[in-house]
């Protein structure tokens, strides 16, 4: 039994034995329909946007059920239904109030779901399907120029500013109390570009085997692994086995680390790359293994965790054609809690909707092109992306993205941190998640009230229309032209407020207030701050008064030293 199951308020797992006679009778009755029912299952659940053709979109033999409110495990009506339908309860999560059942061998998934939906006590019943990641495997020749591997994303080339992020970073680079939940394959917690920005649950005491904060998860100090049901959301190195039989081993292990770095790799630290929101925190929630899909059940639990534990933004770089109603309700609850969600639009090069991106109150992000082999086609439509008003809300770069990675079991040094190129709407989405985090950060800095609806509206309304791409196929015409690529600068300017810069001295210099190298960095930051604004300092340095052209003052606020312009002129 793992730590999660030790908690009295957490998920209940059972292996109940039903009436063997009843189940055999039902199984014999359905035997003649088995072939037709399995064909119906494949048709009903087949996804139109597979990343790997070998993957099923349904967890084998599992159904998710939410009963009418007030009906919990042990309720007589639930027990009777479980026995009648020969359902074996695999799990129950009280936070999302969802039961996960395994149906008996030989039973028709379609028939079982239909029968449960007809029961008066059942609110929702659906197959426990899979969502898959939305990246496109990289060809070794698809690397393009090594020059400006990232800057073309954030600040464009020539007169095209692309995301126009450098101007936005003059306003804010993010705050550590704004949290982005990355629901994915796990994140390399020790990667030098990510480790400083990993969210830590300060209300939980590590390693004591107790659910200190009462949230239903034991020792969840850095998030949770919903795939393996434990408190370690690091992706590890994989199992070295081609689990899904597609000829690739541990192929998605890097995915969550890559996504997290697009959203919030630490910037301006002399290491590697910069993410969209340099100083925001990453809440790591693992729902995938080293390859294959993530179940609806695990994803909805991760969404609930993010909303309940302080995330301002959720990124979902995953999807399929199946619109899970239970996941939609989980995302509605998180929206009502004030969370913004960005999701990848999909990689089938079509106008078809993908979920969860196409659910209400989710920002669906398509992908623009990258500069291939010296060509500056950064306004074009990526060859793989969804398009059209039904499937996409906004656009961000998704091709030829260079970001943080972790080596899998097949590498020379398994688990080693590194960097790589990849592509897909999986990596467009976290740029938008990072932008949402910047907006929340700037609003907090300036005291401007800002709701998640405001953030979503600003991101969509300030996006810059892209010209029609004459080379796209099929030609999307105005459906592509009608979409906007997000603009960090325009979004932050629409919010208003004064600039804010974070300076991290956690691992630099003495703490006695003397002017060592860190203070030189501080003066550079102050000089770079044009007009009124705020500079926040993390670290143990003793504050000292700094006199510049305008009077300044230092104050300590919750462990953070803030330098702000005084009221005097």
- Give the overall average pLDDT: 79
Q: What is the overall silhouette?
A: globular
Biggest sheet details: 9 strands, mixed
Radius of gyration: 25 Å
Number of strands: 21
- In whole angstroms, the N-to-C terminal distance is 64 Å
Strand order of the largest sheet: 6-7-5-9-11-12-13-17-16
Helix count, per DSSP?
A: 15
Spans of at least 5 consecutive residues with low confidence? 1-22, 27-58, 136-147, 504-520, 537-569
Brief overview:
Helix content is 26%, strand content 19%. The chain is of the alpha/beta class and 569 residues long. It is globular, with a radius of gyration of 25 Å.
Supply the key terms.
569 residues, alpha/beta, nine-stranded mixed β-sheet, six-stranded antiparallel β-sheet, 15 helices
Can you walk through the features of this model?
The protein has 569 residues and is an alpha/beta fold. The relative contact order is 0.12. 26% of the residues lie in helices and 19% in strands.
């Amino acid at each position: 039994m793992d730590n999660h199951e030790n908690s009295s308020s957490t998920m209940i797992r059972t292996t109940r034995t039903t009436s063997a006679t009843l189940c055999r009778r039902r199984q014999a009755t359905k035997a003649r329909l088995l072939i037709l029912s399995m064909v119906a299952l494949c048709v009903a659940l087949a996804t139109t946007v597979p990343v790997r053709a070998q993957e099923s979109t349904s967890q084998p033999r599992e159904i998710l059920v939410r009963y009418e409110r007030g009906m919990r495990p042990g309720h007589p009506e639930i027990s009777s239904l479980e026995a009648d339908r020969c359902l074996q309860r695999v799990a129950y999560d009280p936070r999302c109030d969802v039961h996960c059942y395994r149906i008996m061998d030989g039973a028709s998934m379609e028939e079982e779901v239909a029968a449960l939906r007809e029961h008066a006590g059942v609110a929702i019943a659906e197959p426990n399907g899979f969502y898959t990641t939305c990246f496109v495997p990289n060809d070794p020749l698809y690397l393009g120029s090594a020059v400006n591997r990232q800057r073309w994303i954030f600040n464009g080339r020539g007169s095209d500013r692309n995301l126009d992020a450098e101007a936005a970073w003059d306003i804010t680079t993010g705050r550590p109390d704004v949290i982005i939940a990355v629901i994915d394959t796990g994140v390399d917690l020790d990667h030098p570009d990510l480790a400083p920005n990993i969210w830590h649950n300060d209300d939980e005491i590590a390693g004591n085997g107790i659910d200190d904060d009462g949230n239903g998860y034991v020792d969840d100090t850095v998030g949770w692994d919903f795939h393996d049901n434990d408190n370690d959301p690091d992706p590890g190195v994989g199992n070295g086995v081609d689990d899904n039989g597609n000829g690739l081993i541990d192929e998605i292990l890097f995915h969550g680390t890559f996504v997290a770095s697009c959203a919030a790799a630490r910037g301006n630290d002399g290491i590697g790359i910069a993410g969209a929101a340099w100083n925001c925190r990453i809440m790591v929630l693992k729902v995938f293994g080293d390859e294959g899909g993530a179940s609806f059940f695990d994803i909805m639990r991760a969404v609930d965790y993010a909303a309940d534990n302080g995330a301002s933004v959720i990124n979902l770089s995953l999807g399929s054609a199946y619109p899970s109603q239970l996941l939609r309700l989980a995302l509605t609850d998180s929206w009502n809690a004030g969370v913004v969600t960005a999701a990848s639009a999909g990689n089938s090069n079509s106008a078809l909707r993908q979920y969860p991106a196409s659910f209400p109150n989710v920002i669906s992000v398509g992908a623009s092109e990258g500069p291939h082999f010296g060509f500056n086609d950064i306004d074009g439509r990526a060859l793989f992306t969804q398009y059209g008003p039904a499937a996409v809300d906004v656009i961000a770069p998704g091709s030829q993205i260079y970001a943080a990675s972790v080596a899998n079991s097949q590498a020379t040094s398994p688990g080693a941190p590194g960097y790589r190129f990849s592509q897909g709407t999986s990596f467009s989405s976290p740029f938008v998640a990072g932008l949402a985090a910047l907006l929340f950060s700037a609003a907090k800095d300036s005291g401007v009230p800002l709701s998640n609806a405001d953030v979503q509206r600003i991101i969509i309304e300030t996006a810059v229309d892209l010209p029609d791409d004459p080379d796209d196929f099929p030609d999307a015409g105005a459906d592509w032209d009608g979409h906007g690529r997000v603009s960090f600068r325009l979004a932050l300017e629409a919010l208003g407020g004064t600039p804010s810069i974070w300076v991290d001295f956690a691992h630099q210099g003495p703490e006695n207030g003397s002017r060592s190298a860190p203070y030189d960095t501080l003066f550079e930051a102050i000089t770079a701050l044009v007009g009124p604004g705020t500079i926040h300092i993390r670290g143990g340095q003793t504050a000292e008064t700094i006199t510049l052209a305008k009077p300044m003052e230092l104050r300590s606020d919750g462990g953070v030293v803030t330098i702000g312009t005084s009221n005097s002129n």
